Amino acid sequence: SSNDLGDILNFKNANYAKPDPVYFGKAKGKNVIYIHLESFQNFLINYKLHGKEVTPFLNSFTKNKNTMYFDNFFHQTGQGKTSDAEFMLENSIYGLPQGSAFTTNSTNTFQAAPAILGQKGYSSAVFHGNKKTFWNRNEVYKSFGYDKFYDAGFFDMNDQDVLNYGLKDKPFFNEALPLMKDLKEPFYAKFISLSNHFPYTTPEDQSSIEPADTGDGSVDRYFQTARYLDESVRKFVDYLKKTGLYDRSVIVMYGDHYGISENHNEAMAKVLNKEEITPYDSAQLQKVPFMIHAPGVKGGTMHQYGGQIDVMPTLMHLLGIDTKKYVQFGTDLLSKQHQQIVPFRNGSFVSPFVTSVNGKYYDSQTGELLDEAAVEKDKRIKKAQNFTEKTLAMSDKLVYKDLLRYYTPKGFKPVDRNDYNYNMTKA
Ligand code: GP9
Ligand code: MN
């Protein structure tokens, strides 16, 4: 109903965080290159196994002078896994409490990043070495306004190069390079990697690091597939440098969700050199890397708390597009008004002061469980819990009732799904 929409518009207006002029428009007109780091958790960054860095390239990228690396950044996905991450990054709207919005609500009205940028002269494309129907991408990308979708049909899916869900990352990035020549600049392009995915199988002859020795196979191999991803991305970025694209593009890297579930806590305790993994540790383990490399922008390690819901407004503001008129549930990480409360899909949340896990609260700095009196005393806790519940409920209502049908931001042209099809295959 119009009341629902009105509530949501009020809510988003109240939560809007205005851009910081230091960053606003600093990447105006640049290409955007998203690199999706499959199942990549932040603990891998700077982790040493057998005395060696697991992901030397990504580690160095976090320290690049033009990279902003967010080290308190969390995934917020639910059952929709990869698709939830994509959904949040493209829309700043939460994935659903059950299932995946990609499958249940693919024909909804959205005001997604490719559509907004498309109306500012950007072309857009997704590259992914799996069938286009997986996660219903070929349908939902139309609603997002993606011009092109280079799925498995564009790649050489020979037996040797295919593993698990699809094309291995090295041939994937290699074969994507010539396809990129078709993209009209400025472009908004997303590269979804695949090899670092459960059950983390990498042919032994292709791994340049020994497995870990916890005795839990998937945990042990996780380091090897992460190294493989690291090498794949290094080559890709080298190419971007060679062609000059590196200087004309914002490169955004993000982990989509955890790789090691709580079923592997025993092995993870060994990996992290802890006696046990507490519920607090589990929540903190939901950190994934988030990096923005923008030419001309001063980099550094940023400690503000945030999550995937915040990516779109952050990026839009860097590109010089104010998000005020759009319905978005996250806020610009670089804004002074950014809310450092990171809701998880199950209603728990993290923040700099408290970590909430299934109705229990822990001090975020020490990991100590807070007793009822302490929770009662710190008024911020109840407020943050209420905010978490409210923002998730608003977001769900918006998706379930397809409410953006009734709201067209001024100057935005609604997406016509008929303008898009991904039936082309490679020549
Ligand atoms: C499939 C890939 C993996 O194409 O993106 O999805 P996930 O299993 O991680 O949700
Ligand atoms: Mn995934």
Automatic annotation (TrEMBL):
Q: Which family does it belong to?
A: Belongs to the LTA synthase family.
The lineage, from the top, is: Bacteria, Bacillati, Bacillota, Bacilli, Bacillales
Domain Sulfatase N-terminal, residue spans: 30-321
Keyword Manganese applies: yes
One Gene Ontology term, aspect cellular component: plasma membrane
Q: Where in the cell is it found?
A: Cell membrane
Q: State the source organism's domain of life.
A: Bacteria
Q: How does the entry describe its membrane topology?
A: Multi-pass membrane protein
Give the shown range, full length included: 223 to 649 of 696
Identify the residues that bind substrate: H197
The Swiss-Prot or TrEMBL record annotates one GO molecular function as: metal ion binding
Give the record's keywords alphabetically: Cell membrane, Manganese, Membrane, Metal-binding, Transmembrane, Transmembrane helix
| Pathway linked to the protein | Cell wall biogenesis; lipoteichoic acid biosynthesis
Protein name stated in the entry: Sulfatase
Q: Where is the active site?
A: T82
Binding-site list for Mn(2+): E38, T82, D256, H257
